[in-house]
Design a protein that fits this description.
There is one protein chain. It is built from four helices and seven strands, in the order αβββαββαββα. By secondary structure, the chain is an alpha+beta fold. 13% of the residues are buried.
Length: 179
């Protein structure tokens, strides 16, 4: 039991030998891990944001991520059971690639917002243009407000006015509709 903890602490502590240096070549921002190309020419090694020793640098790596080209120094830990590759542990950031205020993101946001206002893929702000309604026999236009009514309506749906045909009949033209 003591042997296992001793070997574990030995891999996590600063190595007695020369530390490796390398360049970050990929970084998964969502899962906070990446791969590093070693300057010595050995196979790429895995690293995780948790392996960064400086707490502020670790926080920055977790929130902003590392980028391709960032330079780090690290100790190499052999793969444990179930792991696929060597790991860069006790990571110290030597030099970070210059970060710019991501102009590409702000451009894409502007582009997206413009397309929305033009009725693009980003969602509609106004309803689609309506089709002209097919007029059928008996449909009528309200003489008071001008709203279009279907034939089944006996009064305007907006103002309650009666259609001209019913108005004419209500004036009492004869014997209740019989001829």
């Amino acid at each position: 039991m003591g042997r296992r903890s001793g070997s574990r602490s030995r891999t996590r502590s600063k190595s007695r030998g020369k530390r490796e240096k390398g360049t970050v070549n990929t970084w998964n921002m969502e899962k906070q891990f990446g791969f590093v190309s070693c300057d010595s020419g050995r196979q790429d090694v895995f690293t995780h944001a948790e392996y960064i020793t400086d707490t502020q640098a670790r926080y920055d790596a977790k929130t902003k991520g590392l980028r391709r080209g960032d330079r780090i120094s690290f100790d190499i830990e052999e793969p444990r059971e179930g792991k696929k590759s060597y790991q860069a542990v006790n990571v110290e950031i030597i030099d970070m690639v210059k970060r710019s205020r991501s102009r590409s993101r702000s451009r894409s946001r502007r582009r997206r917002s413009r397309s929305r206002s033009r009725g693009g893929r980003g969602g509609r702000r106004s309803p689609p243009p309506s089709k002209p309604q097919e007029q059928r026999a008996g449909d009528w236009e309200c003489p008071k407000c001008g709203d279009y009514q279907f034939a089944r309506r006996t009064e305007c749906r907006k103002c309650g006015s009666r259609p001209p045909s019913i108005r004419d009949d209500s004036r009492g033209r004869g014997g209740g509709g019989r001829r």
